[in-house]
Amino acid sequence: MKITQESADNILTLSLDGELDASSSVLLDTELTKPEVLHYKKVLIDCQKLNYISSAGLGVFISHLQQFQDADVKLVFFNMQEKVHNVFEILGLDALMTIVPSQAEATAF
C-alpha cells in the first residue's frame, strides 16, 4: 500500500493506493497518529485506488474516530470503489463515517 499526503486550506488529504490489510494498516495508523493531523479541520481519505480493505484496516479508522471527534476534525471518505463501499455498508460503518462520491463533496462537507 502507498499513502500520499496533500494539504491545503486546513484540509489534509490522504490518498490510499493498493490493499489496506493487517501489514499496511500499521502505516495508516502511523499517519493518523501524527499530532499535526489533529490541527486540520478536515481529513479526507481518497479511496479511488483502494481496492481492498481488511478488518484491520477498518479497525484503524474506527480506533481514530473518537480522537477526531474530540478534536472537531471531520473525517470524510470519497471516491470509494463499490466493493470497498460494500464492506462499510455490510458492517454498518457507513452510518458512523461520512462517505461521499467526490472530492468536491468531501471538501464542501
UniProtKB/TrEMBL annotation:
One Pfam family matching this protein: STAS
Record-linked PROSITE patterns: STAS (PS50801)
Annotated STAS domain residues: 1-109
Alphabetized InterPro entries for the sequence: Anti-sigma_ant, STAS_dom, STAS_dom_sf
NCBIfam families (alphabetical): ant_ant_sig
PANTHER family assigned to the protein according to its UniProt record, in alphabetical order: ANTI-SIGMA FACTOR ANTAGONIST TM_1081-RELATED-RELATED (PTHR33495)
Family: Belongs to the anti-sigma-factor antagonist family.
Name used for this protein in its record: Anti-sigma factor antagonist
Protein species of origin: Hymenobacter algoricola
